[in-house]
């Protein structure tokens, strides 16, 4: 897993870390039980503060995506299937919402939008 941090991004660095690790878990790049780099190792490789990586890991743990075992490290949490499915559904709903907004912005009716979705499904 390779993380890329952008100093020119409007997102804080810890959020960039969270988003990339979360993405790797959701896509299966990081498997259940797989060990993540230590907080210090990740901080050193990204050339950021250990406090920044600690915050990212804390957010991931609070979301139930990783588990930290004292003295052993952080691991991708087990039983993420439902959590991953919910996150993926949320992302699809968000994209569909944006599509509806875009359609309404150009004056499409609900019927026209529904017809467009049906065509896309084919």
UniProtKB/TrEMBL annotation:
Q: Which PROSITE patterns match?
A: HTH_GNTR
Q: Where is the HTH gntR-type domain?
A: 11-79
Q: InterPro entries from the xrefs?
A: Tscrpt_reg_HTH_GntR, WH-like_DNA-bd_sf, WH_DNA-bd_sf
Q: Which CDD domains match?
A: WHTH_GntR (cd07377)
- Keywords of the record: DNA-binding, Transcription, Transcription regulation
> Matching SMART domains, A to Z?
HTH_GNTR
Q: Which SUPFAM superfamilies match?
A: Winged helix' DNA-binding domain
Q: What is this protein called?
A: GntR family transcriptional regulator
